């Protein structure tokens, strides 16, 4: 239980500090901390991340840092992609979902540990079709393996949209809310088909702890070097990604 509580705090901190990483951490907490069924864990992860990201976005909305036009251009295709990814999960085994999740974790770790320079372009010179396509692809990943995709959304908004990092993080949180909510709605059908049920109490208390962590993260973000945070977070993803992949493969042969 202590590990689960600490995990919930870190989930919120990650979203508040970096605008990403919450769902990458949520699924392992549910799988290994609470021993939930993988499909239930993915659905619960989407609900929890949506709630925490919504709370984390409020201070940014108050400061008027959310770029709503980009939220629509990235978020709506992302919602469609997430719904499609959740639909595809019906024909995807638990093992394959976990292995895909581990791969996403390792790719996210690479992005964190070897970040490329993100140029800030002119906010008016937008390649809209690229933003829409990227939103759709990230959405499919979200629905299939239960990740919000903030680590993909933030760079896309900076590179393709020309947003500043603070604007990209703020907009990313709102997009995560939209995509995670869309995926969760579809997963309700998936759960019904498999005769599985959510534990609303678990979702509520993890989300509540995570929300408090997100507000703390938003408050301390300007006071901590972001590069150092990304390094720590990246290595944590490497360790968890290798563990999940190894554990899944061992379970397959046992």
Q: What's the average pLDDT?
A: 79
Task: Outline the low-pLDDT stretches.
Answer: 118-124
Distance between the termini: 27 Å
**Biggest sheet statistics:** none
Give the tally of β-strands: 0
User: What is the string of helix and strand elements?
Assistant: HHHHHHHHHH
Q: Bin the helical content.
A: over 70%
The radius of gyration is 17 Å
Number of domains: 1
Q: What portion of residues belong to β-strands?
A: under 5%
Q: Given the C-alpha coordinates, what overall shape results? A: globular
Number of helices: 10
**Structure class:** mainly alpha
What can you tell me about this protein's structure?
With 254 residues, the chain is mostly helical. The chain is globular and about 50 Å long. Helix 3 (38-62) runs antiparallel to helix 8. The protein has one domain. The protein has helices spanning 2-18, 22-33, 38-62, 68-88, 94-113, 128-145, 150-159, 165-193, 200-220, 226-253. It contains ten helices and no strands. Helix content is 79%, strand content 0%.
Summary of the model, kept short:
It contains 10 helices and no strands. With 254 residues, the protein is mostly helical.
Features:
single chain, 254 residues, mainly alpha, 10 helices, 0% strand
Secondary-structure map:
Blueprint: H1 2-18, H2 22-33, H3 38-62, H4 68-88, H5 94-113, H6 128-145, H7 150-159, H8 165-193, H9 200-220, H10 226-253
């Amino acid at each position: 239980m202590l590990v689960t509580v600490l995990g919930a705090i870190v989930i919120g901190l990650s979203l508040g500090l970096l605008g990403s990483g919450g769902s990458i951490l949520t699924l392992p907490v549910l799988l290994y901390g609470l021993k939930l069924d993988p499909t239930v864990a993915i659905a619960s992860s989407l609900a929890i991340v949506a709630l925490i990201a919504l709370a984390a976005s409020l201070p940014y909305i108050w400061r008027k840092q959310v770029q709503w036009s980009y939220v629509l251009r990235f978020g709506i295709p992302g919602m469609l992609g997430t719904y499609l990814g959740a639909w595809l999960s019906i024909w995807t085994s638990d093992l394959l979902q976990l292995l895909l999740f581990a791969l996403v974790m390792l790719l996210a770790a690479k992005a964190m540990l070897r970040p490329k320079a993100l140029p800030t372009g002119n906010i008016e010179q937008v390649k809209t079709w690229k933003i829409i396509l990227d939103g759709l692809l990230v959405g499919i990943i979200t629905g299939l393996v239960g990740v919000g995709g903030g680590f993909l959304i933030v760079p896309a908004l900076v590179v393709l949209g020309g947003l500043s990092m603070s604007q990209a993080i703020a907009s990313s949180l709102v997009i995560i809310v939209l995509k995670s909510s869309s995926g969760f709605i579809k997963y309700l059908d998936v759960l019904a088909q498999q005769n599985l049920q959510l534990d609303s109490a678990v979702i509520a208390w993890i989300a509540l702890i995570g929300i408090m962590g997100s507000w703390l993260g938003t408050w301390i973000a300007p006071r901590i070097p972001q590069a150092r945070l990304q390094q720590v977070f990246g290595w944590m993803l490497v360790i968890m990604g290798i563990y999940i992949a190894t554990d899944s493969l061992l379970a397959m042969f046992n």
